[in-house]
Amino acid sequence: MVDATVGHGGHSFLFGQHLGLGGTLVGLDCDSRSLERARIRLAGLACKVILVKSNFSEIAEVLGSLGRGPIDVLLADLGFCSGQLLDADLGLSFREDMPLDMRIDKSLTTTAADIVNTTDEKSLADLIYRFGQDRASRRIARFIVKRRQRERITTTRQLAEVVCGALSRPKGKRKPRKHPATRTFQALRIAVNHELDNLERLLAAAPVLLGTDGIVAVISFHSLEDGTVKRDFKKRAAEGVYRLRTKKPIVPSAAEIAENHRARSAKLRIAQKN
Fold first, then answer.
1. pTM for this one?
2. Torsion angle of alpha carbons 109, 112, 113, 115, nearest 10°?
3. Is residue 188 one of the residues assigned to a domain?
4. What integer best gives the mean pLDDT of the chain?
5. Exposed site from 21, 25, 159, 260, fewest CB < 10 Å?
């Protein structure tokens, strides 16, 4: 079993309990601190555990270097754990004041601050619209450029203030369900970490790496991710490579959302190799 986004080891621990002595669990993550937490959590499992610092886009290279055969189960949870959102070094949260970084993999060279402070207004608006799907992208980009002319934007709080100013509500208008900066932060995080490109590489590698009847399962948290997974699974099913195990995505129940509010937008799609 391969957990392409092992994080702190939650999913891997549950799967690992079923693998037993003869099973092998390979976990990938590009966040070194997450890998260390996963190593501690998975230490008591009976199966063989191999943890590798790598982006899941490099799954074929990783498994090749390990000499591991066909995969029986491939899981990718595209969300972030609460610990990462609160990690000041990552700079992912608009609710806390953090350096505007957003690099999950610190070997990447471009930070969110670099993009915000150097990208021209039109390209910045296009980025926010493409990856954040925010219809106010041009207004947000205009406010960002105006602010950075006065001072460099270096923290998450600064950026959140700018976006909130751009999207300020008229008096009496109902408060939005999402924080106004949500879409802009999402767009920058996707751009910094090349998330959609990496997802496409993972999906392209999956049918080659899976054994017959092997399962690929992906949990996504926004429509750009889910749409990418949906199109890939549907295309490969039409080609006879996969059979769909979920005609529609599995979504969390009301009880699960009440217990874990961040799960509200999760969608799970599953395919099986023919």
1. 0.90
2. 80
3. yes
4. 91
5. 21
